[in-house]
Amino acid sequence: MKLADLVRGLPATRLLYQDDSYLRETSCTLLRVEPDERRAYYVITDQSIFHPKSGGQPSDIGRITGDSFALEVKKAMFSEGVVIHWGKIVEGEVHTGPANLSIDWGPRYRYMRRHTAAHLFDSCLAAVMGRRLESTDSWVGDDSYVGYRGASPNIEQLRTAEKMENELIEKGADVTARVVERNEIASLLTEFPSLDRLPTDKGLRIVTIEGFQGIPCGGTHVRNISEIGRFQLKPISPSDKGFRVDFDTVP
Hints:
Shape: elongated
Largest sheet: 6 strands, antiparallel, barrel
Helix content: 10-25%
Strand order of the largest sheet: 2-3-7-6-5-8
Radius of gyration: 19 Å
Order of helices and strands: HEHEEEEEEEHEEHEHEEEE
Number of strands: 15
Strand content: 35-45%
Structural class: alpha+beta
CATH topology of the largest domain: Threonyl-tRNA Synthetase, Chain A, domain 2
Number of helices: 5
Number of domains: 2
CATH superfamily of the largest domain: Threonyl-trna Synthetase, Chain A, domain 2
């Protein structure tokens, strides 16, 4: 089944995880329920706390429960501004109407910590190099990494950035997010290396670590970098576009 067909005619989902990454449970209204060939269901709600797999962040997992039913959400996807939950029935028969959402907090919190750590490493590496490197891709699930364009810094520069990050984590700093209007984007992102690739026809969500310039991002993050834990660099490897920095965070 094509995701675009599933969401046709439905309003954009209100993305509650962007307003509050710590929200673990909430109520919702099921707008559409569609079975698939594997006896699982696609479920679309008016609002969601489930972050879909996107932007280098894995999908949240959890449950949708309602009057006489429970659905185990195995993954969430995103299409045309709509979050699509996919999962299997645990109890009863899923149907439209009022329901409740709950996410598995353990994996989500790991993603939040790693996602924030990746942004902080971008800024620390930029401070060491004297310029912000252009990131190509990232992943904050298992085997976390950030990919960059161009030649890799030397090991001393990378270790200096790692040390800087851990010193900053120990001190702590607030992490905030807000949507800025089109006319603010260029002035706020003066160091961003690929500003011309950003959508500038609408507002853009900017995540800012106190003391550093913000970065466009739609993901979830911790409120303070002290929650990251210790940042650990792993081996650096070449990629098609440049190099890849593997890392992890230790609570």
